Amino acid sequence: MVNLSHPSNGIKFLKLKWRKLQRLASQVGGARNIFCEIFGHHKAENTFWLDSSSIDKKRARFSYMGGKGGSLWKQVTYRLSNKSDMTFKGGYISIEDAQGSSKSTFLEDGFLDFLNKELQSFCYEEKDYEGLPFDFYGGYIGYIGYDLKVECGMTSNRHKSMAPDACFFFSDNVVAIDHLCDDVYILSVHDGITTSTPWLDDVEQKLLSLQNSATKKLMSDGSQPAATARSKEGFVAEKSREQYIRDVEKCLEFIKDGESYELCLTTQMRKRMGETDSLGLYLNLREKNPAPYAAWLNFSKENLCVCCSSPERFLQLDRNGTLEAKPIKGTISRGLTEEEDELLKLQLQYSEKDQAENLMIVDLLRNDLGRVCEPGSVHVPHLMDVESYATVHTMVSTIQGKKRSDASAVDCVRAAFPGGSMTGAPKLRSMEILDSLENCSRVVIHEGEASIGAGGAIVALSKPEDEYKEMILKTNAPVNAVMDSQI
Question: Of 291, 310, 324, 263, which Cα lies nearest the Cα of 456?
């Protein structure tokens, strides 16, 4: 959220009301039970869940969830024009309000300019959020597709996504969970015209009833895959092993010729799904592969769900203006025994190839953050730390800087998007090369198809066969979750 202490004319003050339910989260079975009880009905349509499902609370302390229902709620959907490039970057936007009315228009200046103006058009009274331990009080929740790189310096897109290039909710009713203190917060944003709080009253009553009921265990109703016919077909790789290895070899040729230092090559695994319990799929994924930056986004009108279990933070901007990125470069599988697991962790820690990958992206992110941060403020408090997750060990670095006062949150996104760990370095030339090698747009689940993107960073020390194995390793958890979600 944008907090303006001295807003100019046209800035709208929104009112925020909230309640704190102390030590309640574990008493009702945790975030999963809360989501299923409050938002899980009717296939969890038009809901979101920013889900810190990793058990390591030091990595991500808060989870946020919400859904359609408030008077300020709306959905914003954006699709790039087929002609979009740096000189013509416009696209079509559709906005649906809480009453179901929709309007569409063409945005000549693109989506990020629209989002920037939206965020700067409102703010909160500071006294309304005093006492809250987190920085999100309601507002825009959604995703920005990879193809919006044309609004961030890339000259053009070779491929066109079938899914929207950006999709957001404006969420005015939010439940937040503090995993460190076990507290639950319920928040409602309104325009100040009304003083009633029916949503807060209703949710508080549901949570207290849940506390007193026998459903403290993980609920089964609404949280398991529906009994639909399972497709016997598994995932189909967009490229065969031989094709992927040839692409890695082409990347190595580009690197040898000095066109790039690092190329983050990806491919897609796809499966036709038919009718699927998407929430059951996500609940299965978060159980099998818990992650600090997991997410569920269900844009029902678009027949689109995002099911994410990411250990990586792209960007975070806090209330003090600290901008942080946590890129991951370097991945290895977990061991079958404690001894093997520790050896694999050490192997990653001292891998010359993985260190090179990570250091190049750290240097790229330092440059990206430097474009919007105060001179001399960008630093690297953690370099090449190894973090362990359910299925893999990863090498993670942390880059921080102090945002300039004249830079907005959207300016920060524009400076760093797409994340360097998704592109390589130098960023623009690397994206051009990747567009020429990859056969399609990097997309999300859409219209009955599960699409899982995976890949890895190619550097001069890369071995093609090893890169293929790393790509397959990264798909294991989401592929298994999708297959298990079908009976």
Answer: 263
- Tens of pLDDT, residues 396-435: 999 999 999 999 999 999 999 999 999 999 999 999 999 9
- Tokens representing 271? 């499966």
Strand order of the β-sheet with 47-51 is 122-124, 12-21, 183-190, 173-178, 62-67, 47-51, 293-299, 304-310
In a 3-state reduction of DSSP, which class is residue 8? coil
Convert 143-176 to b/e letters by CB count within 10 Å (16 or more is b): bbbbbbbbbbebebbeeebebbbbbbbbbbbbbb
Q: How far apart are the first and last CA of the chain?
A: 42
Please, are residues 409 and 2 in contact by the beta-carbon 8 Å criterion? yes
Q: Please answer whether residues 123 and 15 qualify as being in contact, where contact means their C-beta atoms are separated by less than 8 angstroms.
A: no
Under a CB-based contact definition with an 8 Å cutoff, are residues 178 and 134 in contact? yes
Q: Rounded distance, CA 316 to CA 437, Å?
A: 31
Beta bridge partners, 326, equal 313
- Same domain? For 343 and 411 the reply is yes
Instruction: Answer yes or no: is 220 within a domain.
Output: no
Alpha-carbon torsion 291, 293, 296, 302, what sign?
A: negative
199/201 Cα distance (integer angstroms) = 5
133, part of any domain? yes
Question: Does 231 reside within a domain?
Answer: no
Can you tell me the distance from the alpha carbon of 436 to that of 251, in angstroms, rounded to the nearest whole number? 11
Is 153 in the same domain as 194? yes
Q: Are residues 360 and 418 in the same domain?
A: yes
Structure confidence by residue, pLDDT tens digits, 34-80: 999 999 998 899 999 999 977 665 778 999 999 998 999 999 999 99
Residues 422 and 359 in one domain: yes
CATH code of residue 383: 3.60.120.10
Same domain assignment for residues 133 and 268: no
> What total of structural domains would you count in the chain?
2
> Given phi > 0 = left and psi -120 to 50 = alpha, else beta, which region is 303?
left
Domain extent for 391 = 236-295+312-484
| 187 shares a domain with 272 | no
Contacts 24+ apart (CB under 8 A), 281-286: 281/225, 281/305, 281/307, 281/481, 281/482, 281/485, 282/307, 283/32, 283/223, 283/224, 284/225, 284/481, 284/484, 284/485, 285/309, 285/477, 285/478, 285/481, 285/482, 286/32, 286/51, 286/53
Q: Is there a domain that residue 305 lies in? A: no
Work out the pLDDT band at 183, boundaries 50, 70, 90: very high
C-alpha to C-alpha distance for 369 and 380, rounded to whole angstroms: 11
Token pair belonging to 85: 């490039």
CA distance 368 to 389: 27
Q: Which residue type occupies 76? A: V
Backbone torsions φ then ψ of 295, nearest 5 degrees: -160, 145
Query: Cα angle at 142 between 138 and 143, to 5 degrees?
Result: 150
